[in-house]
Design brief:
Distance between the termini: 8 Å
Bound molecules: uridine-diphosphate-2(N-acetylglucosaminyl) butyric acid
Structural class: alpha/beta
Radius of gyration: 28 Å
Shape: globular
Strand content: 15-25%
């Protein structure tokens, strides 16, 4: 959900209280304030009023959200007066959409005639605008007044607009113009609401897991060894063991397959994410709309050691690499033994432990861009951060060459055993996602949470580990909602006690 709109209400020089509403924009604050004033007059306590209005989710056709996924949001609003239109556009702009697309159906010939200059100027916030014909609302037509005239007036102000004389074409035109990240708004008091509902229904149909034709087409394009599943539960594929289902779940069997999945998702604007070994990841209970791509096929888990170099695919577990390095008498990779991820996921995170980072031991990296092209680069040329590598915000790690240094095998084993021992002593064994928060600059998150006495704090089946304060463990029946609520409890306490804003390290995906 979006952050609520927060405001204070003052009465006769004194603060009555702080309030929050789920609706956006100043007009809604103003409406809510009238309600608060009335309830206050009737003798209700400010806390009760606050609780009641915070739950209010709005009325039909008033900033009503008809559809939302990770690509698009579609709103239906009754606004048909220039001031209303301005207000709703400004409030939706606060959602920071990629673009704000607006389709408007003017309401009544008389209103269009009398407010033409105001109408021509009220769509300034729209990045793209469609105009349907005037909805008469029982009025006779006025000669010379039509959407055509309004369109000309809008264009005269330098804004482009597309006229759509037939409402039946509107949904298709808007859909064709949509790009992921867009917020789409249908505006008007006439029958344009039906177009809004039709588009929302079409977008629901498009959901890849629910659309058999889409599924069949991707299946046909992939090699027979590739795995493609619908509505696949993700909890068992994450180390935290919580979360809902993926609409589509694809396990390509080769780089060619992976490239096919990416191109397919691009063509159809299907959002996708790549799953490693499922550590460092929290999937929300509503699951993931779109396609989850896993590199679990053995094709991506090959490795080879020649001299002091290990060439490995993204799917190989870091633990395997550490053990192989040890067997071959290579030092430098001992610290990766305890990191519970795949090479690919760990490259993406620049995973670290025991004071070292994965990128310290990488020589070259291989990756695929989102169009399916494979690239290779020296690891030293790639910008990395503490727990992150920006390159992988729009590239998929395919593998890397890791470099160790020849050493006495017994010494390597001893060092690795030391790390392993330290980890077993200092980190929990129950299911978790690894450390939940990034370490703030001034103090380790684990120590901080420990100092505040938060170990053992529980929400549902999720608990702050008694072993390490920066781990949330699943005691068996936790939901993502429990884990997220516990994260908020910790953040609030840390903020209140130390003024530190803890930032999550785990990646949080999917819908609530
Ligand atoms: N400490 C406490 N109480 C706690 C936890 C830690 O007092 O509940 C103290 C420890 O005694 C120690 C200090 O805090 O003196 C640091 O603890 P630790 O060595 O466990 O390191 P950390 O900073 O808490 C980091 C990484 C871990 C990694 C360990 C071990 C982050 C966010 N965490 O933890 O990484 O395994 O070092 O090298 O950078 C992960 O990223 O998922 C992760 C687990």
């Amino acid at each position: 959900p979006d952050a609520p709109t927060r405001f204070e209400v003052w009465h006769q020089q004194a603060k009555l209280g702080s309030f929050a509403i789920r609706l956006l924009g100043e007009k809604n604050v103003s409406n809510a304030t009238a309600v608060i004033a009335l309830l206050h007059q009737l003798g209700h306590a400010p806390e009760d009023i606050a609780r009641a209005i915070e739950e209010f989710r709005g009325a039909a056709r008033r900033q009503q959200e008809l559809f939302r996924d990770s690509r698009f949001r579609v709103f239906d609003d009754y606004g048909h007066h220039p001031q209303e239109i301005r207000a709703v556009l400004e409030s939706l702009r606060r959602l920071q959409p990629g673009r704000l697309l607006v389709a408007f159906q003017p309401h009544r010939y008389t209103r269009t005639k009398h407010l033409l200059p105001e109408f021509s100027a009220c769509f300034a916030e729209a990045d793209q605008l469609w105009l349907a014909e005037i909805y008469a609302a029982s009025e006779p037509a006025i000669p010379g007044i039509s959407s055509d005239v309004l369109a000309d007036a809008i264009r005269a102000r330098g804004q482009s607009v597309e006229l759509v004389p037939n409402l039946l074409h509107l949904s298709g035109l808007v859909r064709a113009g949509m790009r992921p990240g867009d917020v789409v708004l249908f505006l008007g008091a006439g029958d344009i609401t039906q177009v809004a509902h039709a588009l929302a229904a079409q977008l629901r149909e498009e959901a890849p897991g629910r659309n058999d034709a889409c599924f069949a087409e991707l299946r046909r394009r992939l090699s027979t060894d590739a795995l493609l599943l619908k509505d696949e539960p993700l909890a068992r594929r994450t180390t935290m063991r919580v979360g809902g289902n993926a609409d589509l779940f694809a396990e390509p069997a080769s780089e060619a397959d992976l490239s096919i999945v990416l191109q397919f998702c691009n063509e159809r604007q299907i959002p996708f994410v790549v799953l490693g070994r499922g550590s460092n990841l929290l999937v929300r209970d509503g699951g993931i709309r779109g396609c989850v791509i896993s590199l679990a096929n053995p094709h991506f888990s090959q490795w080879q050691i020649v001299g002091d170099r290990i060439t490995a695919g993204a799917g190989v577990r870091l633990k395997t690499l550490a053990v192989e390095a040890r067997k071959h008498g290579l030092t430098g990779l001992e610290f990766i033994e305890g990191i519970p991820g795949s090479l690919g996921g760990s490259m993406r995170m620049n995973a670290g432990a025991m004071g070292s980072w994965l990128f310290d031991v990488l020589e070259t990296i291989r990756f695929m861009d989102y169009h399916g092209n494979v690239c290779e680069r020296a690891a030293s040329e790639v910008h990395v951060e503490y727990r992150g590598c920006p390159l992988f915000r729009n590239h998929i790690a395919l593998g890397a060459v890791l470099r160790g240094a020849p050493a006495d095998a017994a010494a390597v084993r001893e060092r690795m055993d030391g790390y392993s021992h330290k980890r077993w002593e200092s980190q929990p064994r129950q299911p978790s996602a690894g450390c939940i928060f990034k370490n703030p600059k001034t103090i380790g998150a684990g120590r901080l949470i420990d100092e505040l006495g938060l170990k053992g704090t529980r929400v549902g089946g999720a608990a702050v580990s008694d072993v390490h304060g920066n781990f949330i463990v699943n005691e068996g029946n936790a939901t993502a909602r429990d884990v997220l609520a516990l994260i908020e409890v910790i953040r609030e306490r840390v903020r209140a006690a130390r003024g530190i804003d803890l930032e999550t390290e785990v990646e949080i995906l999917g819908e609530g």
